[in-house]
Amino acid sequence: MARPLEELFAARGCAVVGASRNPQKAGHQILANMVAAGYDRGLYPVNPGGEEILGFASYASVADIPGRVELAILASPAASTPAVVDDLRRRMDERGDLLGVVCSAAGYAEVGTAEGRAHQELLASFCAEAGVRLVGPNCVGIIDTAACVDTTFIAGIVHAPGGISLASQSGALGAWLLMDWSATPAGRVGFRRFITVGNMADVDIIEGIETLGADEGTRVLGLYVEGSPAARRLVEAAGVAARRKPVLALKVGRSEEGARAAKSHTGSLAGTDALYEGAFQQVGVQRVRSPRELSDAMRAFDALPLPRGGRVFILTQAGGPGIFCVDELSAAGNLAPAAVSAKTKAALRAAAPPIASICEPEGHADITAAATAAQHVDCLEAVLRDDGVDAVVFITVATLFLDLEEMGRSMLARMAALRAEGIDKPVYPVILSGNWVMPCRRILEEGGLPTWDGPDRAVRVLSLMTERAAVEGRRP
Description:
By secondary structure, the protein is of the alpha/beta class. The chain folds into 3 domains: 6-140, NAD(P)-binding Rossmann-like Domain (Rossmann fold); 161-303, Succinyl-CoA synthetase domains (Rossmann fold); 311-474, Rossmann fold (3-Layer(aba) Sandwich). The chain is built from 16 helices and 18 strands. The protein has helices spanning 6-9, 26-37, 81-94, 114-130, 171-181, 205-214, 231-242, 256-266, 273-283, 291-303, 319-332, 342-351, 373-384, 404-420, 438-446, 455-474, and strands at residues 14-17, 43-46, 71-74, 100-103, 133-135, 142-144, 149-150, 161-168, 191-196, 220-225, 247-251, 286-287, 311-316, 336-337, 357-358, 364-366, 391-397, 427-432. The chain has a 7-stranded mixed beta sheet, sandwiched between helices. Strands 13, 14, 15, 16, 17 and 18 form a 6-stranded mixed beta sheet that branches. A 5-stranded parallel beta sheet has the order 2-1-3-4-5, sandwiched between helices. It is elongated.
């Protein structure tokens, strides 16, 4: 029986084959990422030159490392596979401590050459015979922020703990999200685990889904799927995970051209898109339409409570963006304007500027550009206290006389006070626009509240969360 993938995250001792002193080389960045992640269970650069790298003594081969080595990360070229396999085989013969290999290098079966296929078969055969798990080849790697493991060569990752996990058949797609998260207003997005599988010579996307789906620290699971020859098993694994937590899938290859591109990328069989669409719906997996939507939704599911229903109040300081939001709400299909009580309308009129438009139409208040930071927050509290409101989309645009930073701090304090009273509803702040509002967005995001730069993005995430809430509500 194959070793569980969990063992790789807990590995004691890690050799980086192809480590380099050159910061532009993958072998350098992998070592730097393991250091940045906080890995302290034994790091061993492997480089024939025997040079010290990032303060670590380097070894000519994995077999020469005196300490325990349970994980080997291969950043050396595919052409070096025969020599690397000989080295790993010697290690296993003499020490027998290797549990897993992560192969980041490309140039294997995905290139379609006889040489590439032969190198992959050699590496995979050795791992299978030795009882060693293989992630890749042609993958970015794995990350576990709790276990302080980062085998990737992605620069600029912020290893902030959180409840988001991602299983991806594309390393570049995963890298896109991780690097994007470091460029958010707060400069980080907390996440739990990250698995890319590359050519799936051993560990495949299905095992990645199963591992992350069963992980107690994962609160929301994102998937990037190109395809699998075992499509039924893939859907079943995602469905099992979806019974435990939200599962969001970005399935590409929707078009014939996209399916061909997926096959040329990692050799994946995309499968009929309509079959995946229907199967995902049946097992409770929610499909997203873009990497941006996947990122938005994972962040929201991790940080916000699920809405009790689809009754939404739009609280806006800007007329045009508010009207656009009304249209988006109407198009969502599972959302509706929240009809608030006469008491709430009176509270809104008392809190907002005299020229504000309150509930015309229902579920919408335009408090106008005259609203101060305090008026924004007072109106938000009035809406959140209404029993007929399940969620709030909060829209504001920067003006010279609006203290956005004070508004952000006050919002967080007021929402915390409401939670202490038992009022905990999702709020989706849309703070427009550009660099001018970054200090406010940073305050909110550092306080645990995701922000958006457009109402359409916020409404789409709210629709997904409402859909999930309905699914959970139907379960016994």
